[in-house]
Amino acid sequence: MRKLRYPLLLVHGMGFRDSKLIGYWGRIPLELERAGCRIYYGDQDANGSIEANGAVLAQRVKEIVRQTGAEKLNVIAHSKGGLDMRYAISQLGIAEQIASLTTISTPHHGSLTVDRLLRLPKPLVRLGASCADLWLRLLGDRHPDTYGAIGALTTSAAAEFNQSCPDAPGVYYQSYAFVMKHIWSDMLMIVPAAVVRCIEGPNDGLLAPRAVEWTNFRGVFTGSGSRGISHCDEVDLRRKRLSRRQGDGVSDITEVYLDIVNDLGSRGF
Description:
- There is one protein chain.
- By secondary structure, this protein is of the alpha/beta class.
- The chain is 39% helix and 12% strand.
- α3 (81-91) links the parallel β3 (73-78) and β4 (98-104).
- The longest helix has 19 residues, at 50-68.
- The chain starts with 7 loop residues before the first strand and ends with a helix.
């Protein structure tokens, strides 16, 4: 196992916050620490806009670099957290402090399903977003903007974002996609998985591989068992192995993160 040269920043996606009581990343941080990683967290809002969350992450990167004395950081970001981090790197002047950005199921190309969702009556969508914002404020979000965050996930918004936030020279980017084998593979995701499958095909319960493929794409991963890997499984929501079965596919999501770290270490990061 190759140790990382630089500390590792974990950046969460939508709907959750970094918390000591209910960690977003399940068993993953502990396994990475056992492998010698120095772990830090983004602490951005659950449903903040890309711009607002990017500003928080840029400040967080500067704080960690100052505290640790490290020249740079490695970043692993899940879902929309990858867009937040790309914005911070490209637009907020921290590219020289980032060694690598690994994105896990980040909607770099937007979601065709969100395109359809936003065809619903705007007052209805805004009402749902406002209810989410109220709840997230109670949980600690400083500037929740669920409606804006969802709007940023359309294919047209993604195309504009990619034009304005290109990969920064000197930063190593790579991306990963995951899929469930059946819509009932994860009962928490069965409804969105069914909708996305009708519109976009195989997916992880929220996103199809076409949406998340980005620079240095590492492929589409699924489980070694019968259920595959859902958007929740990607961050170890259930705190347990995906399958006892060995062979083709992933039996424990922590193995994916350990492989990522080992590869980054071998590249000198």
